[in-house]
Amino acid sequence: MEELSLEEIKKVQLDILIYVDKVCKKHNIKYSLADGTLLGAVRHKGFIPWDDDIDILLERNEYNKLLKVLYDEKDSKFKVYSLIDEGYFYPYAKVSDTDTRIKEKNWPDYKDLGVNIDIFPTDYVPEGCEKEYYDKTMHYVNGLYDCLTDIAYAHDKSYVRLIKRILRFRKVRRNRKKGESYWKNKINSMTCLKESSKMSRLVEGNFQIWDKSILKQYSELEFENNQFSVVKDYDKILKSIYGDYMELPPVSERVPCHDFIAYKE
């Protein structure tokens, strides 16, 4: 297999995003570029030069709709992965290029996962106790996620890592022998809540809570010579994550944040 350069990885990721965008437009599914991808669109009209991933964000019901469509389509070039797939341990979905493979240095290999983009759901949070609820839920969901990765690392005989994770997350220590489906159901039950006026990304990320209205209006921005969907009030989201997001970080921080090697078959 041939190792891919950063620019080649970005080209594959852009092709995946174009595919997902077409699916969303065809089925009237609302999504937004997210995190560094959204920042890249606003500040660079494309990838942040030193970035190496693409993220999109959807309301939970739109997220579920998108996953159903992607699974039903069974595209030969692109494949979706989520918690319904055996052995998949990320609490959010990915769409992967089937002609590539990745090897992450700090995570177990997952079957035929290739170069991919991340798809994040947002969920409602109770009004009046947002920060407390967010912290509690993130702690619990991350602990459950640890249990899923413990299963994978146990298969890889990384027992030291397994023991450290289990001891750190005391609430689930008694149930550490539960199977994969048990922990996945726990994660889903924690993040699917009744409607309120506040929303957050509970499965992964830093503390950000937004009015649900922010995810109701959309526009488009240029990203690598293509137009993609973004929330109309992207300024509020970017400020909540990055502060003064138009200011470039120090040169020492302009490095890829993911630790993986990608190959083309």
Provide a descriptive summary of the structure in words:
The chain folds into 2 domains: 2-125 and 203-264, Beta Polymerase, domain 2 (2-Layer Sandwich), CATH 3.30.460; 130-191, no CATH class. The model is unreliable at 153-163 (pLDDT under 50). It has 265 residues and is an alpha+beta fold. It has 7 helices and 12 strands. The strands form 3 sheets. Strands 2, 3, 4, 5, 7, 8 and 9 form a 7-stranded mixed β-sheet that branches. Strand 8 and strand 9 (209-211) form a beta hairpin. The chain is globular and about 55 Å long.
Number of DSSP helical runs:
7
> What structural category do the secondary elements indicate?
alpha+beta
What is the percent of helical residues?
25-40%
Low-confidence stretches: 153-163
Number of domains: 2
N→C terminal distance: 5 Å
Q: What is the fold-level CATH name, i.e. the topology of the largest domain?
A: Beta Polymerase, domain 2
The CATH architecture of the largest domain is: 2-Layer Sandwich
Element order: H for helix, E for strand: EHEHEHEEEEHHHEEEEHE
CATH class category name of the largest domain:
Alpha Beta
